[in-house]
Design goal:
By secondary structure, this protein is α/β, with parallel strands linked by helices. It is built from ten helices and 14 strands. Helix 6 links the parallel strand 8 and strand 9. The longest helix has 15 residues. The N terminus is likely disordered.
Length: 338
């Protein structure tokens, strides 16, 4: 997932699915009604408690105008989406441990408001589902997404025929948050398309499903270091990187931000994580970049863009451009030529 947090205090129980020959398992669905701004932090909390999958139902996805390109888009139904806000569904193996944690999960989500994350008309519901329903429930919301004129993200289970010179990123997010459909990811990919030059060296901080690293590789990067604090995310990233045949270019490392990453003269650092986390390491980004190197920072809600901008400037970075999609902002900055 594209959020860096300390997961040491969380349960290490991570249920895996599709185990052949195993008796049918019982699953619980946690349903959270909140705001679009809270999607990433809420999904992050649910994942850290052991969610084995997360789906997002946002009415904006249904109402958004799309090109008549992907036939499966017509399968979307208005009744599957909330009247307002966003519904996030997470799936947990129904164990005694999970049942005991339910009050703590709800309270942890409510506590996000103390970090100025708007929760809106917050509702928290737990339902029972079976394993077969879980295995397919979230996939109906995830379809091919054209990010730029050149780049399209395609779920690994979908059949898709690319046009000439189209770059295809096959993705199975699994238990890592990051399907490529969120505005913050799209902002990062567009920035990479604008700034990445063939032969560049890239660091992807908080790689999640690995989508930004894969995009960098397919745009011509020479080498990419993909880091994430979450072991589940690094495993998901490795699988997606192999799926896209980019493992010879991308190295995945379980790591907290840029700590102990002794790399300098990097062309691009990209980080699609929360504003609060970006504020923790602008100085490390500055040290990692070569003069003229680019930092692409996204995952920034509009209200916090100014704070992040000032932190980047304080670290010695020069703001090149700010791009916005909905309520989300990407800030592109540069280390000055010395």
């Amino acid at each position: 997932m594209n959020v860096e947090v300390d997961s040491c205090a969380r349960s290490n129980h991570r249920p895996f699915l599709h185990t052949k020959g195993v008796l049918k398992m019982e699953w619980s669905e946690v349903e959270v009604h909140t705001t679009n701004e809270a999607v990433e932090p809420v999904a992050n909390v649910l994942t850290e408690f052991g969610a084995a999958g997360v789906s997002i139902e946002d009415v904006a996805d249904f109402l958004r105008e799309r090109e008549d390109k992907f036939g499966e888009i017509y399968a979307l139904r208005r009744e599957d989406y909330p009247e307002d806000g966003v519904i996030i569904k997470a799936y947990f193996l129904k164990t005694t441990e999970f049942v005991e944690q339910i009050p703590e999960i709800e309270q942890t989500l409510k506590n996000l408001s103390t970090f100025d994350i708007p929760l809106g008309n917050f509702q928290f519901v737990v339902n029972d589902v079976d394993d077969e329903e879980w295995a397919t429930a979230w996939k109906k919301y995830y379809h091919p997404v054209q990010i730029t004129d050149r780049i399209t993200i395609v779920p690994s289970w979908e059949s898709y025929t690319p046009s000439a010179n189209e770059i295809i990123i096959e993705l199975d997010p699994g238990m890592a948050f990051g399907t490529g459909t969120h505005p913050t990811t799209q902002l990062c990919i567009r920035a990479l398309s604008d700034y990445l030059q063939p032969g560049d060296e890239v660091i992807d901080v908080g790689t999640g499903s690995g989508v930004l690293s894969i995009a960098s590789a397919k745009l011509g990067a020479k080498s990419i270091l993909a880091t994430d604090l979450d072991e589940i995310a690094t495993r998901a990233a490795e699988e997606n990187i192999t799926l896209n045949k980019t493992e010879h270019i991308i190295t995945v490392k379980q790591n907290n931000l840029l700590q102990d990453i002794n790399k300098t003269d990097v062309d691009i650092v990209v980080a699609n994580i929360l504003a609060e986390v970006i504020l923790l390491f602008p100085e490390d980004v500055y040290k990692a970049l070569k003069p003229g190197g680019i930092f692409i920072a996204s995952g920034i809600i509009e209200d916090k863009a100014k704070v992040v901008e000032e932190a980047l400037k304080k670290a010695g970075l020069v703001i090149e451009k700010m791009e916005q999609q909905g309520d989300w902002v990407a800030i592109i900055s540069k280390r000055g030529v010395e």
